[in-house]
Amino acid sequence: MSEIPTDAKETTATPDTTPDTIDNGFDFSARYSDILGKVNQTLDKVDWSQAGKVGKASGILLAVIVAQVLIKGVLDTINLLPIVPGLLELLGLVVVGNWSWQNLTTSEKRSSVIDKLTSLRQEYFG
After folding, report:
1. What's the pTM?
2. How many CA atoms, within 13 angstroms, populate the side-chain half-sphere of residue 56?
3. Does residue 3 fall inside a structural domain?
4. Is 27 within 8 Å of 21 (Cβ atoms)?
């Protein structure tokens, strides 16, 4: 049995009730416009010149993350093939050996490599 009188349980529906208005008096469209007004006021306070820099930095970070995920997927796929990882290691050794033979066999070549490295270091690090 209920403690509430039967006339309090009845709800009256008005013919002008719209889908935006709920029976408890909550007006969705008014609340929505109020929230949009507050959002617009907050967005007006933002310094958009600085937001462009943040957007670029976050875009670059996102691109780096996506590239790393793709590279990891490709390398994992290559490692699943039985003979390819060993061939790639052998290829790396051949390339390093060939570069070393061409650039490090004489003292003149070694000094030119050191000069190139120091000029690159000066160019990038100042």
Report:
1. 0.40
2. 5
3. no
4. yes
